[in-house]
Amino acid sequence: MGVQENIKRGTLELLLLALLVDQDMYGYQICQEIARRSEGKITLQEGSAYPILYRLKEKGMITEYKKLAGKRRTRVYYHLTPEGLAYMQALKSEYLEIHEGIEKILKSVQSK
Amino acid sequence: MKQVKKRGNASDQLIENLKKATNAMIILSLFSIRPMNLDEIKRYLDEKSNSVCKITYPYAAIYRMLDAGYIQSCGKKQVANQRRREYYKITPKGDKHLQNLLVSYESFNQSVNSILKSADLERTGQGDFSGRSGKY
């Protein structure tokens, strides 16, 4: 597995939660937003998003509700809970801290 | 790589996957400076990253890189206490692999940051958490 795949596995929870900070979204919308905001560099299939969303729901980080889209179709929206926001911030801090540590190492290597 | 500043179980998966993703890149980058032994690698990472990145058991990663031809042994040297340490150096194949890893890492990190940043910006624009849009 490549470097991107492993980082992706590690950061998907963080990215999904980060997207829900500003608005509630449905599954397909989340996948589209990840691709759009990463300019296509990070892609997530809907089928891969749902296990993560279910896990986050079980942990109480998000809740879901149904909303009518059109006349008959309903969409399941996901909503970030206060616990989810705190969890997202912890993950984000951790990610940034690790990245900073890696950057320090790489910079010190470049200066040699 | 083991990150020592853990915050409970919240980020275990994040750490584990980042560890898998960046281990080879970090170790190869150190070997690109000069041949090193494993103790030097561990010490260097600990010092330069302020203990954020710490490899406690680098042997598995080293053996994988040896098998892949990214590094090669360049002999044993005697260090303090009469102990002999094996030194490794990066190969041209390893150097090429390192450049690819660095590009991948940088590219992915930029994408993650742009998603995190856009979330931050939109949140700032909407005030505090209770003011978010959507149901509830």
Largest sheet of chain A: 3 strands, antiparallel
Name the assembly state. Answer: heterodimer
Strands of the biggest beta sheet of chain A: in what spatial order? 1-3-2
Low-confidence stretches of chain A: none
Find the structural class of chain B using helix and strand composition.
mainly alpha
Report the count of strand segments of chain A. 3
- Beta strand count of chain B: 2
Query: What would the average pLDDT of chain A be, to the nearest integer?
Result: 90
Class by SSE composition of chain A: alpha+beta
User: Can you write the helix and strand succession of chain B as a string?
Assistant: HHHEEH
In N-to-C order, the SSE pattern of chain A is: HEHHEEH
Shape of chain B: globular
- The mean pLDDT of chain B is 78
Which outline of chain A best applies? elongated
- The N- to C-terminal Cα distance of chain B equals 41 Å
Residue windows where pLDDT falls under 50 for at least 5 positions of chain B: 2-8, 125-136
For the largest interface, the chains and their residue counts are: A-B, 53 and 54 residues
Major β-sheet of chain B, in short?
2 strands, antiparallel
- Approximately how much beta-strand content do the residues of chain B carry? 5-15%
The percentage helix of chain B is 55-70%
Write the layout of secondary structure elements.
The complex is a heterodimer of chains A (112) and B (136).
Chain A (H helix, E strand, L loop, with lengths): L2 H20 L2 E2 H11 L8 H13 L3 E8 L3 E8 L1 H29 L2
Antiparallel strand pairs in A: 1-3, 2-3
Helix pairs in contact in A: 1-4, 2-3
Chain B lengths: L11 H20 L6 H11 L10 H10 L2 E8 L5 E7 L1 H34 L11
Antiparallel strand pairs in B: 1-2
